[in-house]
Amino acid sequence: MRMKHKPWAEPYLAAHPDVVLTPSEITSDRGKTFLHLTPLYLEIGTGKGDFIVGMAQKYPDAYFLGIEKSSTALAITAKKVVEAKLTNVMLLNDDALLILDLFPEQTIQAIFLNFSDPWPKKKHSKRRLTNEKVLGTYYRLLKKLGKIYLKAANPGVFEFSYENFSNMAYDILEYTHDYDGLDAFDYPTEYETKFRAQHIAINRLIVQKGEHTHETNPTSTEAV
Ligand SMILES: C[S@@+](CC[C@H](N)C(=O)[O-])C[C@H]1O[C@@H](n2cnc3c(N)ncnc32)[C@H](O)[C@@H]1O
Fold first, then answer.
1. Which residue among 42, 76, 167, 191 is least crowded, i.e. fewest CB within 10 A of its CB?
2. What span, in angstroms and rounded, lies between the C-alpha atoms of 56 and 81?
3. What atom in ligand 1 is closest to the CA of residue 194?
């Protein structure tokens, strides 16, 4: 979803390297050090940060990386991280689909996909964060038995995601069309709060990286 660009966003991100990792730093010593902290959780499409800030406060011994392509949304998140004095959050301003291949394999405990852009037209399905190719990438990044937590309001995208996960080497742990938001290992996002206020049902899927070999995972090229 497009956000109105705020001119202060990029300067704010540049002025806070303590909470911001630049794309070119992913393979640097600083990037590698953060990406090997454990447990490390990744949120893709962080938006304005309610979820990542809430989770980082709830779980101060865990580390959280948020990737968001909108600099304005990410700067709003960065402000919240700085104001809350969090030291377990790192933020990255880029399109996740362009940079995830640079990440080290088997370092991420879980990935959160919260109300990812639906891209409803079939011709745009490659841009969805649950297309088959990117599910192969997540598989490579996740630790053994790592999980993916997905929340969605759009039923079409939810079913598309469920089918893609089901066709790959992921085990489905939870599949619900009416998530009550009560899981302790969760936090409401900005979109979720708006959807709940409008009585829109929240779909939730939790999948786990299966213990299969990569031969059963058609898009993964890495040994697991
Ligand atoms: C519908 S909003 C949801 C924001 C937040 N997760 C929430 O639930 O309130 C989707 C967000 O994902 C971001 N996004 C979409 N595709 C992305 C991608 N490929 N890489 C990084 N961010 C992405 C958008 O910029 C937008 O901020």
1. 167
2. 9
3. 9
Residue with tokens 């759009």: 154
* Cα–Cα distance for residue pair 27/5, rounded to 1 Å: 29
Q: Tell me: the pLDDT tens digits for 86-131? A: 999 999 999 999 999 999 999 999 999 999 998 988 888 899 999 9
Atom of ligand 1 nearest to the CA of 46: 6
Cis check for the bond before 39: say yes or no (omega within 30 of 0). yes
CB of residue 114 inside a 6 A radius of ligand 1? yes
Establish whether 117 is a catalytic residue: yes
Query: Where residue 214 falls among pLDDT bands split at 50, 70, 90?
Result: very low
**C-beta 47 within 6 A of ligand 1:** yes
Query: What separation in Å is there between the alpha carbon of 153 and the centre of ligand 1?
Result: 13
Label residue 215 by pLDDT band (50, 70, 90).
Answer: very low
Domains observed in the chain: 11-216 (3.40.50.150)
